[in-house]
Amino acid sequence: MGRPRTPLLDRERIATTALEIVDERGDFSVPQVAKRLGAQTGSVYHHVEGRDGIVELLRERVAAAIDPATLDLRPWDTALEAWARSYRAAFAAHPKAIPLLMTSPVRAPRVLEQYERAVALLLDAGFAPADVMPLLTALENLVLGSALDLAAPETMWELTASSPTPRLAEALSAASEGRADRADRAFEVGLTAFMKHAREVRADTP
Prior knowledge:
Blueprint: H1 11-25, H2 30-37, H3 41-44, H4 50-63, H5 76-92, H6 98-101, H7 109-124, H8 129-149, H9 166-175, H10 179-204
């Protein structure tokens, strides 16, 4: 038999398959990826450095949806806010991947490059170097938490007669919104507070 025109395995196919499994199950294993691709587990290791290598492929795949052009906007606060919104949208498309990606160090060059640009944005805007990473980490926490919220159950609070919570019931009734609206409103509250704090930090920088 002649060789197939396209290889059975490559990094793109591995990333696509692993992300499909994570979207379904919240995690993956190398044997699962190999089985779905109809290949031997050992063959996968010819293309990636084990499970950690696949995790970085997933990170690159998900983060590729973040629009890097947002970091070219000016002034700095417009850029940072736009980047946060794009970041949230990218990860909201694959919320089950968030715990997996956030519990391993970032090594993917394309992802590090975006962080390099975000750091440069803040430094060029006049932020003190010591303030940059706390701000970016706080923004990341807000973005990823909100992306997870978009995948949360429609009803997050199940009230029971055995544990009366009339004030909570009143607040929930007043909100009367679906999951997406709830997550969007909460994100706007958090982002507004974050941007206000960031502007104050910059104003206090000598």
